[in-house]
Amino acid sequence: MLTLDDAGTAEDLAKVWGRRPHVFRNAMPRPVFEATDFFSGVVATAQAMLNGQSKPTGRLALNGKSTSIDEALSFIPRSHIQSFEQYEEQIRESFRDKEFSIILDNVDVALPNIRKRVSPFMHSLFKHVGYPVRGIHSCVYAGNYASTPFGIHMDDCHVIMTAGIGRKTVAFWPREYFEHRRDLMIPGSMAHIQAKVSDHIDDAVVLEIGPLDLLYWPAGYWHVGISDAKDFHAALSIGIYHKGNAAGIVKDAVALPPVANANSGLPSYDSLDMDGIKISATNAPAVSMAPQRFTDMWNEVRAGMLSENAAEIAYLKHTLSTITSVGFGPPVLESPGAIQHMAGVAIGDSRFLAWQNVADTTVVASHGLLFEFRSNPDEINALFLKIKRGEETSFTEIAAFVPTERLHDLWAFIVNGGLLRTS
Ligand SMILES: [Fe+2]
């Protein structure tokens, strides 16, 4: 559990949701993360970035500006560094008298325990206010900076924040407060203003939190982190992107052909089949020259969109994945190993499992991961109902409805989707 009473705190949070910032004082039995966790998060993030993985990532700043490569290297824990205290010393020695910030993005990937602890509370909250269409994003803001480097701003996400190390103070103003101050708007950025915090602090609601408190503020609320001390502080921020649009879901659902990344190596050379546009004598590109690959890709995308119930299934995939992961999305996939046919299949908390039928297809989601059964909807329904009620079944029972060539995919879904009975 995140809080001493997840259901009760979620109900109270729902009452201020979208209205105003609020602190739930001493709501948690212990901090969501501590100094040692933060240090593990830094190590895991640095390793992932050095290995070129897409998640998790980090961002660094010195005196409010992004770091150069040389400066960034000084943030990487040196080989002899074993603890948070040693790491803090390394940073302070490297950047004396400078304000630094370390942002760990997708920190739920670097520190899976954060996701485990936060998710049940989110289910309780989203039962009241609805699940976020655009999901949630968790990061840790750490450093010794006095004020949020980019100043007073607003975000389009609701935020839940806890302080892991030190205390965190945030100043808030309602949207109307700066709404008509065109003189303060930064051209091109509706969400940032160039106002001095000290000019407006008397009108602000200032809230301070310690490691056991939970702070909430609504989307579209002006805010800035402030602090007097030069001490190291680190806070977990969970951005809840509640509003979304249909275009975003369509874009995610349509399996467009992958575009090769720049500098991704020689394999990408293979995709340069459209290098140079040839023109005919009339100075126009000849239609007959459309490369075969272009036409094939087009037809493939169209076939996917025209298949039976494609729109319903695409929408289901998005919503079921969101609901069963509280917006975190699927977990990082691990190699599932060899199939164990007699392995038990069960779910710990039934809120992380959901499914829906569309004609003969059943889309099943567990902890954000998806699997599509393409036949026997009634039997699949009965089977997952059994699992959701807390009963156990075996892999073999489910595998009976899946063709042999898809068994490995099913096994990967069971393992990575947290459906393998472990004890
Ligand atoms: Fe913000």
What's this model, at a glance?
With 423 residues, this protein is of the alpha+beta class. It has two domains: 6-240, Cupin (Jelly Rolls); 307-423, Outer Surface Protein A, domain 3 (Alpha-Beta Complex), CATH 3.90.930.
Sheet with the most strands: spatial strand order:
1-11-6-13-5-4-2-3
Q: How many strand elements?
A: 18
Helix share, percent: 25-40%
Q: How many separate domains?
A: 2
Q: What is the percentage of strand-forming residues? A: 15-25%
Mean pLDDT: 90
Largest sheet: 8 strands, antiparallel
Cα separation of the termini: 20 Å
Class of secondary structure makeup: alpha+beta
pLDDT < 50 stretches = none
Which homologous superfamily in CATH is the superfamily of the largest domain? Cupin
Total helical segments: 14
Assigned CATH architecture of the largest domain? Sandwich
Bound molecules: fe (ii) ion
Please give the CATH class of the largest domain. Mainly Beta
Say what the CATH topology of the largest domain is.
Answer: Jelly Rolls
How would you explain this protein's 3D organization?
By secondary structure, the protein is an alpha+beta fold. It has two domains: 235 residues, Cupin (Jelly Rolls); 117 residues, Outer Surface Protein A, domain 3. Helix content is 33%, strand content 21%. The protein contains 14 helices and 18 strands. Strands 1-11-6-13-5-4-2-3 form an eight-stranded antiparallel β-sheet, with helices on one face. Strand 16 and strand 17 form a beta hairpin. Helix 9 crosses helix 11. The longest helix is centred in the N-terminal third of the chain and has 18 residues. It is globular and about 65 Å long. The two termini are 20 Å apart. The mean pLDDT is 90. The site of fe (ii) ion has 3 residues, from loops.
